[in-house]
Give the backbone structure.
Amino acid sequence: MYITASPTTKTDVIKRNITVTLQNITVTLHNIAVTLHKTGFTLHIESYSAIIRLVGSEEIRPRVIATPNQKLNITIKVSVVRRDIMALVNRKIGYDEVETRDLKFHMDATKVSRHWFNEDPWLTHFMNSILSVVPDGERWVMQSVRKQLDRLTDPAVRKAGIEFIHQERIHAREHDLMNKAGVEHGVPLDKIENVFTVGRKFLQKHMSVSMQGAFAAAGEHFTATLSSVMLEHPEIMHETHHDLKSMLYWHFVEETEHKSVSFDVFTDAAGNGKAAYLKRILAMGSIGVLGLPMMSVPFFYLLWSDKELTNIESARRMVHTLFVDPGVMSKFGRMFLPYFHPDFHPWDDDNRAVIHAWKREFDRTGGDTSKAFDALVAWLEENPDAIDNEAYATA
Ligand SMILES: [Fe+2]
Ligand SMILES: [Fe+2]
């Protein structure tokens, strides 16, 4: 089955008789990827890949009665839309997800052990090399969004931007405490953050507001991508203190909730033209080029200061976790590249089902992040097919 219309054509409408196999709400065809728009049978082409994801399947149920795996002939009207229309459709997805939760986790040296990630030095310092700069990085993206607020034309984007700032302020506060606990163990996370802060202030002084917005959007894609992989594999922190896992997974959920906000703020403020696109890919390209040394230097510095550089067994476990099972960085790498596509939008990867598993329990228990984490683990065990492996396979 091939759809041959150009995705840059705004008004093409194609009617096709397609044989599909219904498996709950997911339909898989070959050689095309489309998303069902909630208003009915209008499908928007995302990219030419192998998956159809039907979002808003409630519209399809009254018209199609089928049992799982039953083959049906249905007519699908495919509307090919331009990127600016697509962005408007997608960006509304997540706004009602963004919710400020002013939680205090009281992280201290008893909950954040010296090797808090499964008592494994290499895995711990790998994550430390990222988390050491989280508080200051959060402040950067907050300030970046704040500076763009008066340029926004869409009140919904502005409202989400303000909620985003509230969320990130609380993340920074809680990660400050986590890093402080590491410093109490003699892990020099403060030195790494101090260097980052110098660079951040330099860039803030010399970079335009718009370019800072592009960096914020790119940085948020980085955190959202890492969060989505971690959310799908909570088992990898099996020996981490439960309170710390609860805190980290609260953060991963909220990073997912607001994953499109800085992108939409940038798009609304800078427009959808070529100049804005160039800024967007320049920012992500810079992070892509500089990200590896920016992470590697503090990572090896932390291992060296911890006298763990020659811990071969720990190194082997880290490489296995990052590149084999579950392959955190391998999956991360494949989800990173789509950002460079002109048609990219953060909600193209609609992973709300995973965060809803956490949020349902959080709301039911009146805000228990520990039970919410356990509920997420249980939900993933019950719904192994819910993990969006297609996102990795088709990226
Ligand atoms: Fe955050
Ligand atoms: Fe964020």
The chain has two domains: 13-81, 93-394. The CA atoms of residues 230 and 328 lie 8 Å apart.
